[in-house]
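Final report, results section. Input specification for complex C-07:
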Amino acid sequence: MNSMTEAQLEHYILQYRATVFRLAYSIVKNREDADDITQDAFMRLYISEVSFERDDNVKAWLIRVTINLAKDLLKSGWRRHRAELTEDIPFESRREEQLLDSVKKLKADYSIIIYLFYYERYTVNEIAQLRNTTSAAVRTKLTRARAQLRKMLSKEDLF
Amino acid sequence: MRKEYNRLFDKITSSMSDKELLEAALRKAENMKSEKKTINIRKPIIIACAAVAVLACGVTAAAVTGLLDFDTLFGNRIVAENEQLGYELIGDAHDVVITCSDNNYNVALNGVTGNANTIIASVEVSRKDGGSMSELSRSHDISMPDFRDVKLSYDNGAVDAKHLNLGYEGEITDKGSVIYTFEIGMQREDFVSDVGLTGKRIFVLLEDYGFTSDADGFDIQIEFTYIPSEKSLEQLVAADASVPCEILYNINPVIDGAAELHTGRDIPLETVITAIDIRPNEGALSGSFELGEYSWEEYSINTFMCNNEVFLIKSDGTEIPVFLGGYNMHRDGDTVTFTMSLEYRLMSEATEHAIDISAVTAISINGAEYPLA
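Structure output:
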């Protein structure tokens, strides 16, 4: 039924698992849910009958699916309710810790755009295509996300 | 700022190995396939005529059994952002924050102005030792890896860069400083300029710009990062460069002229739903709306990713969350038709199951419940 082989799936996992996981994490804010979403995203890639011309298309497809799965989880009753204090992420400075904390406080839409823009280095136009929206809407959200981050960080004298 | 995000996100890693992830994905795929073999039910519901009647009469759909309340389902979808309207941005600087200089250079932001399509910023760079910037030698043209059609050159103290949406010029002043005038097209997010100078390279990174609007006015925010470094552009991008400096600059521009300024008003449009198709793993919803006065070319169509609470209701009362997924739109004149995917799933022990749609009796939209025939 599926056109993708296990070897191909393994190749894509090696190539894009970090992107998928970090994107999921930036939305759902915890590792366990991000792990589940990562598994689901690659499972869907494996069983999908979509054909991809280039690896870039696979990445874009995975990003869209990951966002959908993560937002789906946020809206569902399956989301784990747990304290976030056990996150085992080493920080070099208080500023880094504060930055992550602030990113996690952003709305999901803002976190997604911050991640895609700053880390994945997508342009506003590319993010608009990935999100099925307009460049103007992305630009507005990016600006608002930055403003919120700046506000949160400046409260702590960290910006 | 980007480097900070990079370091931050680099630290976020999964606890699973690649092998564990592969096995988990394959296991889930097998479970999914076995579920699909057992259920094959299709349940289309056509409600177009009733929906049109509700809208035409102005009756709230929530009060009518069996009909959908379209506005609450989709929220607002037109972003009224008419890019054709002209306006001028004029304003005096305030809240200027400059934290930017090193042992050899000072950087100052002299002013910002602009219009609907371009932001123009003036940045002055001078040597701390009092020497003239013109005494620094000419550099090579540098190809920009991120923006392949950008070339920079340095010629007799004048720096010029050409790009579809970006350009800047540098001019040596009588006192020996260089004033760079940046013209930033509204389509560009960032760029890196690399001006070679003897013994030093000056990297001026325009990190970002953007608009914000609130009750107090309409702000433009521009972020420059000035990075003095002897590293090449490639090294700078690839690794930690020297300490970046930020210049933050805000203006509250005066809107000049009578033209109305739209900054992203959301406008609800009445929607007619023509069909809902519920299947074991996912469904689809089709409908249409009229653009009316909002032409396709001038206004942005928002996505349907609104904060809707949608559930399928089973006969035993179980609620199955529905996520409004991807959609296709087609325009015929002023009428836009669309088909949107409805995504739902049941999970147990991390395994995804198709649902028994024969037990689905209703759909709940933002708190209102509608029976499905």
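Chain B touches chain A through 51 residues (CB under 8 Å). The first strand of chain B starts at residue 43 and ends at 46. This concludes the modelling results for the funded period.
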